[in-house]
Amino acid sequence: MTGALFGGTWTQEKLNILERYLDAYTTALKNRPFQLIYVDAFAGEGTYRAGSDYAEDYGDFQEVRDGSPRIALGVLDKPFDRLIFIEKDPARCESLTGLQEEFPNRNIEIRNIDSNDALPDFCDALGAYDRAVVFLDPFATQVSWDTVAKLAQTEKIDCWILFPLMAIARMMPTDREPTAELAGQLDRIFGGRNHWRDFYSEARQQQLPMFGAEPLQERHRGSGQIAVRYRQRLESVFTRVAATPRTFRNSRNSPMFELFFAAGNPVGAPIAVNIADHILNNW
Ligand SMILES: C[S@@+](CC[C@H](N)C(=O)[O-])C[C@H]1O[C@@H](n2cnc3c(N)ncnc32)[C@H](O)[C@@H]1O
Asked: How many angstroms is it from 257 CA to the middle of ligand 1?
């Protein structure tokens, strides 16, 4: 069966935002001497079938829609000069190779590798006239902070980042500290313990004191503050970050993902962020 089943209606909303940005970005740079590169760092298989909490049983009848790689290939006013699709899953990668056959005149590279390993090399290889849009669209918490910081340092990359707010909030219990294993993962995601540990402080209600035991800790900030903190982390490395928030919610109206846009090039960032804000405000 073709087309992975994931996401609710917000998946289409996310892809509409991406499509509008890619169109506007390539048109804005149309007459400039840059090589324009699109990097889909969590590329999937090219198409997807829209799912939802209610519709999974009917998955076979879901319409197959264009995923982000096809959307990037469909930008035609000024097509991308190079497209790089990174996908860790071998079967999905195999599906992506069909795009190379379908679009033989396009410069498409497909990499079956963890994007946290592929992206640093991509950044190091960028030339003076290269400009890129990188789409970070994970299911969960796969994006490491070091990868994001490396993208920003190039000053040649604009980035859409789907931040897995619900998954991260679950890794940060409200009534106790994260386990050592989760703490290590949070360090990787935020780029160090000092960027999340201050969400915890001594619990107001302590249980009966046990000799030598550490005081109980609790998280005193909600998940909205976790998203605010990640935005601040992005602002610390990118030239500008779009101010307009876009939160994707599940059918129970709980926030699942936050979509961020960050621009790295000091000259282009104000225009890029204006375009992104305009799209986020209007669609
Ligand atoms: C939400 S899907 C991507 C959907 C795609 N952007 C689209 O619009 O069709 C996330 C994809 O990331 C892949 N993935 C998970 N971890 C990865 C990693 N560390 N590096 C690269 N790909 C990864 C998964 O196999 C999955 O196909």
From this structure: 15
**48 with 5: CB under 8 angstroms?**
yes
Digit-coded pLDDT (tens) for 153-184: 999 999 999 999 999 999 999 999 999 999 99
For residue 103, tell me if it sits in a domain: yes
| Residue type present at position 62 | Q
Q: What average pLDDT is seen over the chain? A: 92
Specify the residue with its C-alpha closest to ligand 1, atom 13.
42
Distance from the alpha carbon of residue 171 to the mean position of ligand 1, in angstroms: 20
Q: What is the CATH number of the domain that holds 46?
A: 3.40.50.150
Question: Quick check: is 198 in a domain?
Answer: no
Name, in order, each residue with C-beta under 8 angstroms of 198's C-beta and a sequence gap of 6 or more.
none
DSSP H stretches of helix in the chain: 9-28, 68-73, 90-102, 115-124, 145-153, 165-171, 180-190, 223-237, 269-282
**Number of compact structural domains in the chain:** 1
Distance of CA 123 from the midpoint of ligand 1 (Å): 19
Ligand 1 center–CA 266 separation, angstroms: 29
Question: Residue 54's pLDDT band (boundaries 50, 70, 90)?
Answer: very low
User: What tokens does 205 get?
Assistant: 């209600």
Mean pLDDT of 16-44: 97
13 lines ligand 1 (CB under 6 A): no
Residue range of the domain that includes 81: 4-175+223-282
Q: pTM higher than 0.85, yes or no?
A: yes
The pLDDT confidence band at residue 49, using thresholds 50, 70 and 90, is: confident
Helical (H) or strand (E) element with 258: strand 255-263
Whether 210 is covered by a domain: the verdict is no
Alpha carbon distance 19, 40 (integer Å)? 13
Q: Is residue 215 situated within a structural domain?
A: no
Atom of ligand 1 nearest to the CA of 47: 9
